[in-house]
Amino acid sequence: MKRAMRLKSSKTAFASDGPPLVSVIIPVMNERSTIKRVIREAALVHPNTEIIVVANGSTDGSAAIAARMGARVLRYAIPLGHDVGRSVGAAAARGDVLLFIDGDMVIPAAKLRPFVRAVMGGVDAALNDYSGPVRKTVVHSVVLAKHALNAVLQRTDLKGVSFTAVPHAISRRCLQEIGAEALSVPPLAQAKAVKHGLKVEAVFSVNVGKMNKPRRRRERENPLERLIVGDHLEAMHWLISQTDERGGYKDLSRNREMAH
Questions:
Q1: Of 84, 150, 151, 221, which residue has the fewest beta carbons closer than 10 angstroms?
Q2: What is the pTM assigned to this prediction?
Q3: CA dist., res. 124 & res. 169, Å (int)
Q4: Which region, left, alpha or beta, applies to residue 122 given φ > 0 means left and ψ of -120 to 50 means alpha?
Q5: Helices 186-195 and 224-242, packing angle to 10 deg
Q6: How far apart are CA 146 and CA 242, in angstroms?
Q7: Nearest-CA neighbor of 31 among 102, 107, 103, 101?
């Protein structure tokens, strides 16, 4: 697909004949330096695409840039966080395929299309095949939490693949089954998708670990590590509430009564 589909003005050309097939959801908070390029790549994933920018607490003009590019902009005066932004965007989306990306990562359209194609081909949750580094003396707690959740879900084949990593895409069916609200806690959304019997697969690898720009001030004030690990614990708590204290695993030959 040639980049000639861009208009001569700064506005990006989006298909407008009937409802969109693909909704690209982009939470944005002060991403002025990247948002234009992010939207341009997003618009190229499919000929019939809508771009939804959730501008939450943004004060640098990112929302105005997105609007000029032709995106549908949902404005919030206070920061919602990326995950809540995705939940809000999903609730507003009209497409059959919902693709989630971030406003600070310029990912080429060629690396976004595999997620869209996978959902169009029958996958309900097409995830980024990125597990994080594990061949280390000390493995990051977030990476461990991702592997642990997949083990509890009996999906060790996913390793550390997670709803927490963009890009990823879900089907309209997946959204209806798990609910848009679940997307505000990505590990919970993943647990619900798996337990509802939806088709969850790692489809393509994008090394977002190298693309994430450091946000030292944010990490000092509100460390994401604790938040993400807590999200995984919430997902495991939900799983136990749906099964039993062992998450559906058997006790095998253990005779607990003898311990009393």
A1: 221
A2: 0.86
A3: 8
A4: left
A5: 30
A6: 20
A7: 103
